[in-house]
Amino acid sequence: MTSGDGVYGIPYVVEGYGIIYNNAIMKKYFALSDKAASVSSADQINNFATLKSVVEDMTKHKKDLGIDGVFASTSLASGEDWRWQTHLLNLPMYYEFKDGDQDANTVVTGLAAKEITFKYADNYKNIFDLYLNNSATKPGLLGSKSVDDSMAEFALGKAAMVQNGNWAWAQISGVSGNVVKADDIKFMPIYTGVKGEENQGLCIGTENYFCINSKVSADKQKASEDFLNWLYTSDKGKDYVTNKLGFIAAFDSFSDSERPDDPLAKEVTTWMAKKDIKTVPWTFECFPSQDYKNNVGAALLEYAQGSKKWDDVKSVVVSDWKTEKAKS
Question: What are the respective helix, strand and coil percentages of the chain, to the nearest 5?
Fold first, then answer.
């Protein structure tokens, strides 16, 4: 976090999210003699059209695969909808703000945007509908589902995919009866049908920073600075960051061997290093307020339940952005 030449915060962790999948179930699907998908492995899925064809065919074969749905439940209970009103909405906003300037910082562009058009609303609808229509839970019942419910379904092998971040490994591995092996848990980007998305990567960023209190004494400020330097550069400090906290550090003082060894963290670092793959930054940091996100989440729930049309959702996304921006 900078302003001019000043550094006012440093990221204490890098995190990534996308579509997590259980490769054991995917391999089971691709081994079916009557599968309709043209690809033969999950790592060949690199756009929405391919993802849709695989997912919808997996739904037709869900009894053969032993799953309740391809995707774990789209949790839409109040307070449990952040994966959609924040993380998923990140993608259309990223692409909209990129359209104006391909080299722009989309967070800065978004902070300055008093209005939006939701240009990529149909792309958002593509993936959201795919989640709803191929879920372990019927759309009308999703208002009662939590993130914990969704992660438990995935951990117990009742679903093949779930949208979440690398922090989810602790949730998955901690579920009693978990059947997902570390070697089988993988990431793919969230594809929505945007042109050129074959080169799109995971959504990777941070929204949490270490800052030093300017109101305390110079000695305390210096001690704080010394501690942060120790934490991210010394062998013992880096051991705490990697092995006790499980953080993917944002700094080049960490070698490849000093990264967390949990499978989803490894997947994030692998995707970050892929040649010609463009990481999607966490553009949602520019969203105008928590009320804005809550209102979008409520509209998505009503859409899932059938009481709102998609045009109603689009209207909330656009009009509430303008309203909340005006307040700030």
Answer: 50, 15, 35
Cα separation, 107 vs 97, whole angstroms = 8
Quote the CA–CA distance of 264 and 266 in Å, as a whole number: 5
Backbone angles phi, psi at 187, to 5 degrees: -115, 145
Burial (CB count within 10 angstroms: exposed 0-12, middle 13-18, buried 19+), residue 217: exposed
Assess contact for 252 and 17: CB atoms under 8 A.
no
φ/ψ (deg, to 5) at 309: -85, 165
Q: Long-range CB contacts (< 8 A, 24+ apart) of 303-311?
A: 304/74, 304/76, 304/132, 304/139, 304/140, 304/142, 304/143, 305/139, 305/140, 305/142, 305/143, 306/139, 306/140, 310/121, 310/125
DSSP state of 161: E
Give the span between the Cα atoms of 75 and 141, in whole angstroms.
Answer: 10
Which token pair is 279?
A: 């990481």
What is the percent of the chain where pLDDT is above 90? 89
Tens digits of per-residue pLDDT, 209-229?
Answer: 999 999 999 999 999 999 999
**What is the residue whose two structure tokens read 């994030």?**
268
Q: How many CA atoms lie within 13 A of 189 on its CB side?
A: 30
Which tokens belong to 306?
Answer: 């059938």
Write the pLDDT tens digit of every residue in 161-189.
Answer: 999 999 999 899 999 999 999 999 999 99
In terms of C-beta density within 10 A (0-12 exposed, 13-18 middle, 19 or more buried), how is residue 54 classed? buried
Cβ count within 10 A of residue 292: 22
pLDDT band at residue 104, thresholds of 50, 70 and 90? confident
Backbone angles phi, psi at 6, to 5 degrees: -90, 140
Largest CA distance in the chain: 71
